[in-house]
Hints:
A: alpha/beta; Rossmann fold; six-stranded mixed β-sheet; 7 helices; B: alpha+beta; 2 domains; two-stranded antiparallel sheet; 12 helices; 16 strands; elongated
Amino acid sequence: MSERNGALVHIERVNKTFRRGAEEIHILSQLNLEVPQGEFLALMGPSGSGKTTLLNLIGGLDRPTSGSVRIGGDSIDQMSNRRLAAWRARHIGLVFQFYNLLPVLTAERNVELPLLLTGLSSAQRRRHVEAALSVVGLTHRAKHYPRTLSGGEQQRTGIARAIVTDPTLLLCDEPTGDLDRKSGDEILALLQALNREHGKTIIMVTHDPHASARATRTVYLDKGRLSSEKPE
Amino acid sequence: MINWLTQIVTLTRFSLGTVPQRKGAATAAAVGIGGVVAVLVGVLSIAEGFRAAMATTGDDDLVIVLRSGADSEMTSGLSREETRLIADAPGVARTADGPLASSELFVIINLLKRSTGTDANVPLRGVTNGAAVRGDIEIVEGRAFEPGRNEVMVGVGAARAFAGLEVGERIRVAQVDWEVVGVFKGGGGAAESEIWTDAAVLQPAFQRGDSFQSVTARLTSPSAFATFKDALTTNPRLQVKVFKQSEYLAEQSSMLTGFIQSIGVFIAAMMALGAVFGALNTMFSAVAARAREMATLRALGFGSSPIIISVLLESVILAVAGGGAGALASYLAFDGFQAATINWQSFSQVAFAFSVTPPLLIFAILWAVAIGIIGGLFPAIRAARMPVATALREV
């Protein structure tokens, strides 16, 4: 999936502008970013700096106003919505701040959701779900509904759902933002293990320096531009 | 394709699973649609019942002959000589007593309607051989009138709808007292709304001389109709029109049946408009409440069309549940409900029962499905079009 120079994510001269009435708001300006395969990248920056917007562009959830977004050689900014949806299902694992589990489904059913798009048999899906829940240490809570799980357990379910299809890239948007320190640490340790032991490429948006310390590299986004130095 | 269907099933299950969390709005929409369906079924069951009351048992060998130019018995007139020619025409069935033909008079009398206590027009029919020709007349109380006497027997529908028609009672018609001597059934047809007597007694009471208004006859077989009709219409001594009785009665009820159906559909359409807004409101709030979950599913790779279909399915399922309950309520409330109304084409009362038929129930459920589809379509499109990145931020 990686390109010739080993980078998995290639972002080139990306601009993203939103319109609010007559006003144009520039969120990202001429932004460039490369993320090599196997990296655990932390993306930091003040609120409203465009971290989530950048993550959405990488995950194909949003489109740049201009510039190119290539993931593993696929120019995703050129894809139709239908192709992009299929591409996301195949290559992207998403972890959300508020877990975004479906309340009417059990943990294992939530984890199974992305597999429904793969054409696997139900027996194969069950094996994958069991493996993913085992990686996050939640096998014993498989039959529980989200409302009966703690925040940490819900986020681990969310991570199991993100990794169950063995995606190319894991995108985490403030994965510890809604958790206490202890649960947050467990989640970060889990992400770190996924990166180190399973070779997962991870891009994580966070406010928390404690979280970014777990990453292999941290970049800062401020006023629409990226830098490796923390802004003043 | 399987993948696509799996997406629809998963999304629909998810949507329906969240209904209990929105039970107030969902119930309101379903009840609204149920109300529309109940009213639709109720009104159309009147038309169905009326049509059934006017239709005969379906014997295609029963015919009615009127004077040419008349469009109902009320405006028809035939001399005794003409009725004799008709009875003797080829194709008329015969028994040992002679041809199966009844020369008849048809007059309108005033009686009190039980339900309102007001005057109503009731058909009084003088017959010469009415029961034998029709074949399905059955005395359920008392006896048949005796020829030559001022006696009447009344149809069960008339007995139920109008006051003073109990056996043993007397009714005053044309300055003469007539004794009610029996009650008869007539296969659920129009005869049950009538009062019958001997034509020979009715003629002088209404100063009709020796004339009649129609001849009802039974043919040897339905295929004899053409022969019978040709014989009458080519006879230079006769100026008559010939109908199969079923067609004549259907024609006689067409105006009222059509009117009730139009009213029913109009009222239901107006109510449906309200119910569509109810369904729209429910589904828009359902979509809004699940915006983040739907965005999550789309972020995971679920397509837009399964989302549209799942929202539509939820809307239709709610509508069918509400519509089914409405149809059932309407069936329990209206089916068999006895009523009487005036048939403008004969200016007389027809007693009938509301009739909730299976095709009517199916029509009503289809109506509910249409409301569900219209009510769910715009919210469904909105759910599918909402930008994923924006919807993911919804709390």
